[in-house]
Predict the 3D structure of the following.
Amino acid sequence: MKGKRGVPALAWGVFILIGTVLLPLAVRQYQLAMLTEVIVFALFAVSYNLLLGYAGLLSFGHAMFFGTGAYTVAILLNRVPGLSFYSAVTLSVMVTTVAGLIIGSLLLRHKGTPFALLTLAFNALFYAIATKWHSMTGGDDGLSIFRPEVNLGFTQFSISGITAFYYITLGTIGMVMLFCWYFTHTAMGQTVLLIRENEERMKFLGYNTNISRLILFVFTSFLAGLAGSFYALLFQFTSITAISIDMSTIVLMMVIIGGTGSFAGAIIGACVYIYLQDFLSDVTDRWPFIMGLIFIFMILYVPKGLSGLIESFIERLRECRHSPGKIEVSE
Amino acid sequence: MSEIPVFFLHGLVYAGLLFLVSSGLTIVFGMMNVLNLAHAAFYMLGAYFSYTVISVTGNFYLSLIICPLILFILGAFVERFLLRPVHVYGHVQELLLTFGVAYIITESVKWIWGNYPLGVNLSGFLVKTVNLFGLVYPVYRLFMFFCAVFIGLLLAVVLYKTRIGIIVRASVDDSEMVNALGVNVPLVFTGVFGFGAALSGFAGVIAGPLLTTYPGMAAEILVDAFVVIVIGGMGSLGGAIVASLMIGELQSFGALLIPKLSLALMYMLMAAVLVIRPSGLFGEEQ
Amino acid sequence: MAMQEPKDILKVKNLQKDFSGLKVLTGVDFAVKEGEKHAIIGPNGAGKTTLFNIISGKYRPSSGSIFFKGQDISRCPPHVLTRMKVSRSFQISNVFQELQVFENVRAGVRSNYGLRYHFLKRPGSIPEVNKRTEEILALVGLTEVKDTLARELSYGQQRALEIAISLSTDPELILLDEPTAGMTREETAEAVKMIEKVTANRTLIIIEHDMDVVFSLADTISVLHNGTILVSGTPEKIRRDQRVKDAYLGEEGD
């Protein structure tokens, strides 16, 4: 997205920032919890979009990293006494990143359909392990956790209240997502796009495309693990749902609905999916069916997702403003 | 153990079922380069439609004829109006679409028939047992096996002795060439896709009375079908036959040795084959 | 004479390549000196592009070896060879269609400046990278269209971009695969001038069908026929060689 820098973007940014910071004053607990959930899934969706939208890798098993993050943080907090918030999260993310490295090294030699099938297979494996390893993971019962204190050295505070947790989530995940956005403009981010555009030429320009893909994959598993950790801490509970193929399906739907073509698409998709699901589930038990219909509709008729629609709309507005009534002369 | 022949026969029966499901899957993949993730959902629909037809008419044999027909139409519809428009967007979109179709079919089934297992009751000679070389064996399982063999032979005859069969085989090999020869390849695609769905649905009809009819049955056979086509080689019918026999016996004897051959284990088998020999044991080297 | 004899920068020894039974290269031997302008000509299907593909690392030879500055590079993958300063262009333009001309070239330039996988630095964050990109664009004559998308370029401009991208990694040895294919007389003349300019300090191996181009650029010509080098030598020697005339020299340019 070129040319989106400048005064209007900055104004928007500041507005959003102030809005999200002041939000807890305006909304109820329940809505705040849902908003926190949106932030967590926005990160999960962004990580998945980096895989699908930027690198062009279709994975049906991204929840294996989300779930690993969720379970690791839960297991750590249950078994290691006195672990502070950021220590637990950092360790959990490190474990997930290692998992990403191992899985990525194994799977990335394959492309397209075989790769997708392999991600499905390994997700099933992770799920089976989580279900069977009762002593560690609680099996079908899951694990419950208490949010530990945040220890920043100079200050220490509890985040058992949703407002405090909201701020911690907003701050931590917000910064990470900001970096993700920045990442898409860095050399590595561009390399990923270029490899997708023309892998052969990139090889002949000195790029080790296999390593590049692995680096990206590991990065996305890191992000998913972070999202998963916050997910477990938000609900103070983690179960096999977090590591299931269903969860992989959910993030896939979020990204398709939001659109794979832009960074904001994943965030929009997460927002829409969560609020839509909340709304629909009050109306009908059959909300998954409706989600499925929306999913297919998007694939058929709105391949660029909601973010694509919004972008076209903004383009159209801009054209109208610049040349009202004139005939568009294309260069 | 005197049970071994029984388990061997059970394996053959399941192999027959697997072949019916995976043959359509592998032909469609070989021809259109699309892995139809909804294929197992067609199988499930076959079982559910059959349940309804039998509930209404009481006639199993009628169901054997009607349900595959319905699935043929449904499959053709999916290919023509959902899959084909998406083809221009690329492989990823095609895969995603079939995934979406599978999802919707599963949710529809839960909606219409409920989220609990259904039982299909048969009558007549099908529920009897027969004396087979000293073994007492259920007639229905034999019936299933012979259905599979009959359909398999029919498939072989059509593919190797008819003009349409030649076109289909040629399209699996090189669809662009076939198109250049003036054949209406899109129509062939639609037809084959529909036929694959019909085969899968037929498998569902005959599976219903034996295995439970419930919303998870698609996922259950999907992984086995994947393993079959991965081992047999994507696009290879002969490979599908051999692989079906392997997996059929594996599942049958596996149940003897390991109480529940879990989904994950089968997935790992598929992963192992994909990693070690991606073209399958019988497929073409890429 | 006090002048030092230039060394062989590339040495190809008994290179063979089979593709599932089809023998494309049956034994290629030749050497290229540093700074030389070496043309490879031969009838269609003789295996010229395959030769390039093997030298540049895309394929592995079935047997035989390739030495670059004394090092055996027969089994090196493309990205390693590029980093060793071997570069190639493609017969059919292989550019980044959806990117601007400037970014097309910068992709290769930044590869040399440690900006391949950097998580923090942006592609344009090193001024040297941008400067170098501008220089290359100026050399090939694409400065005016640097902000145009690659797919909107004319055919001649695309071929120029193709060469520019090959230059972006600052190669010592550059392999150009039919750079003037499909060009008009004027475009070809321009291209030849440009190629002379950009390969002034580099070693060049060029595959060409246009004999005017070959004779104006090359110091040495090798004739590839039936998967092996028929004869190698100066343009005059090749011109007079009967075997070469028999093989195909009658087909003047295209």
